[in-house]
Amino acid sequence: MILERILPFAKSLLKKAVTPGDTVVDATLxxxxxxxxxxxxxxxxxxxxxxDVQQEAIxxxxxxxxxxNLRNRVTIFHNGHEKVIDRxxxxxxxxxxxxxxxLGYLPGGDKTIVTHSETTIAAIEQxxxxxxxxxxxxxxxxxxxxxxxxxxxxxxxxCLKLDQKTAHVLQYQFINQQNNPPFIIAIEKKLx
Length: 192
Ligand code: SAH
Known about the structure:
Elements: H1 6-17, E1 23-26, H2 33-42, E2 47-51, H3 55-67, E3 74-77, H4 84-87, E4 96-102, H5 117-130, E5 136-141, H6 146-160, E6 167-172, E7 183-189
Parallel strand pairs: 1-2, 1-4, 2-3, 4-5
Antiparallel strand pairs: 5-7, 6-7
């Protein structure tokens, strides 16, 4: 297959927006795969801020970062991403160039703990306010479970209404696949 699959495409978008030394946000640590990717992307002078509401996800992420010797590039908050503006120091605000949300539930974890549109949207709004121009927010939307479909609908409504003076909004989705595979919404903050 030549078309890029969903998760590689999410990474490609972030690679375009983020350069070594930048500050980025992993809005949902999960099992920490994206956290490792982001920590490598920002390099030794960059910084990753990570959020998750579950200790299990935080433990898994710390273990994975330690395996890759990347723990010192990542600040982890045991908090919802809706606290992003409070938790990330003001001095860093203008230098955030990328953020990723891997939505839904923790694979192998408690399926009742899921992301919800209200808090996801609150975090997106905060990020749009504080990110650098041309900063990239990538949402990977898992809509194969009941709450995921509800979150998808609310996020689509929100994204469709985002002012084109504020952001470029892209949807990347395979439309003929079964079982509701994840898809991407990318939000690029405009220059002015
Ligand atoms: N569905 C993805 C993984 C998603 S993991 C996949 O299959 O690969 C989603 C993570 O978001 C979970 O670890 C969960 O604890 C976390 N989460 C839920 N609500 C959150 C919030 N408000 N802020 C930050 N993380 C949250």
